Amino acid sequence: MERLLRKKLLGGAFLNVSENRSKAMAAVKSRGNLTTEWRFRSALVRAGVRGWTIQARGLVGSPDFCFPSEKLVVFVDGCFWHGCPQCGHTPKTNNGYWKEKVKRNRARDQRNATELRSQGFEVIRFWEHQLQGDLGKIIARVRGSLRKKVLLAPS
After folding, report:
1. Hey, where are the domains in the chain?
2. Global pTM value
3. What is the C-alpha end-to-end distance of the chain, expressed in Å?
């Protein structure tokens, strides 16, 4: 992927990236992020919502949360990495790289969601900033989807 992104950069090089910035970006975790997955997980537990797994293996896109028996997956997208239209931003340094990176992330998200839907899953996505707002609305949406799935399940 890095090779493909280098094609979008002036001279094919990452310019003006300090060692500190490089270390900071390398330290960003793709799972177990306290501001996203842990906050949502805590809300599910407090609300008594059960039947979910974290980072379900074998599913395209590694959904953050999966309710396997209801065929429901939930993604909690980081505003920076997935290009939130409300609060995502593009760094000024290596602007072309970051624009292309986020564009590719969003395209991958769409492909993964399409594939999961073709496998019979319902896909719900939330932005990181939504978890910092009204968690009650988010939990209500998940509960509504779960309730719908249970009511539609063959008896």
Report:
1. 1-8+32-67+92-155
2. 0.77
3. 46
